[in-house]
Amino acid sequence: MLKMQLSRKLWTFLAWTVVTCFLLGMQKRNYESIAAIASLESEADSFTELSTPHNNNQNSSDEESTVPFHPFVEGKPKMLVVLTYQRSGSTFFGKIFNKNPDAFYMFEPLDAFYSSLYGTAMRWNVPSDITNHKNGTLRTLPKIEVDGVSEYLSSLLTCDLASLPAELLLHPYIYYYGAGEYQAAESYVNCIGPYEKSMERCADRSPRERCGFRFGDRTQQRLLECHRAIHRRRHGSSSNATRPRGDRRARWKDVDEYAACMRDLKTTVVKNCLRHLQKQCDRRTLRVAKVVRGTMLSMEALLRRHPNFRVVHLVRDPRAVVLSRKGFDWSAVGRYTLLDSNDTLAREAKLLCQSVVRDIRVRLELERTYPGRIYPVVYDDMVRDFRGVTRDLYRFLDYPDQQNTEWWKETILPLRAADSIERATKWQSQITFEQNRAIMKHCRDLFRLANAQHWVQ
Hints:
Largest sheet: 5 strands, parallel
Number of helices: 23
C-alpha cells in the first residue's frame, strides 16, 4: 500500500515537473519572440551614436569583408545607379552622394524619360504603374523601355547632356527641390529660373487626350504610336508615312505642338544655360543617379558597356514601405491600389514585392556575369549600423572612408537625427496581425530572396 502511494506521488511529481517545464518553455519562447521584434529598435539606437563601431562580422576587417568589389579603370569617372523603390529610404540614402563634393548626383531622372518617350504628364509616371498592370499583374516591360532607360542613363552618366530631353533639363523636380537635391547643379538651377513659365506652358500642351495623362491610361499600342509621332516631330522629320489619316489626324496636332514646344525650349536652354551643368558634370569623379522607375533589366547594358559602372540595389522591409505609402494621395499609389482604398497595404505590398522579386532574380544572374559590380543594401541594416554600411558603400566604390571628412561632418551627420529610428521601425506598432499576414502573403518570396537578417517575419 505504501509502495503504491509513493508510486502515485512520484508520478504526480513527474507530471507537475513536465507541465512546469512546458509552461516555462512557452514563456521563454514568448519572451524571445518579443525580444526579436523589439531588437530592431533597441539595437538600432546606435544609429544616433557617432562612436558606435560596426559590429557586423562580415565587415569587421578588410580580410573578412564580403563587400563586392571589382577594380575600376584608373583615370576614368566612376558611374553609379542607385536602383530602389518609393519609400525605401532612398531620399536620405541619396544625400550620402548629393552632399559629396566629388559627386554629380541626379535625383529621379526617369520620370522625365517616360514623359519624353510617350508624352505622358511629368510627375504622373507612377513607379508602380510602370512595373504593374492595373489588374495587379506584373508588367512585361517592352524593349523600347528597357533599352531606352539604359541609353538614357548612359547619356546622363557620361555627361552627354545635350542629348537629353527638355523634360529632364527643365523638370519640375529641379525647380521644386533646387540645389537641395541637385547640389552640383546650383548655378544651372539659377540660370534656368526664367524658363519655368515656358516649361509650364509646354507641359500644359502634353497630348493627354491621345497619349494619356497618367502612365498606364492608354494601351501599349497607343503609347508606341505617341512615341513615334513625338520622336518624328522632335527630330524634324516631315514624313507622314506613319501618321493616321482622315478624322484621326486632327488629334496629332497636340502631339506635334507638344514635341515642337519642348524641342524649341531645349534649344534655348542648351544655348544659354547647359554649360553650367556640363561643367559640373565633367569635373566630378563620381556620377550618380538615384532611380525608382527603373528595373534591373536595364542595368545589363550599362554593365556591359561601361567598365566603371556600378549598381547599388537598395531595398527595405516591405511592411515599412507600404505603411509609408499609405500616406500617398491618389497621384502616387498604383492604379491597382486605387481599385480598393480599404486594402491599400496588401495591394501596395503585391505591387512592390513582385517588382522587387523580379529585380532580385535578374540581379542574381547579373552578379554571376559581372561579379563585384552590384552591391545589395538593406535600408534596415543601415539604420542599425549607419557607420558600417556607409563605410562599406564607399569601399565598394573604391573610395576611402568619408566619415572623417569635413563635408561629411557638416552635412551628413546632422541629417541622421532627422531620419530617426522611430520612422524606420514604426510599422511594428501600427500594422496589425491581420495586415501583417496579408502583406506576407504577397512578400514571402521577397523575404526568402532578400536574405535580410533583420527583417522579423
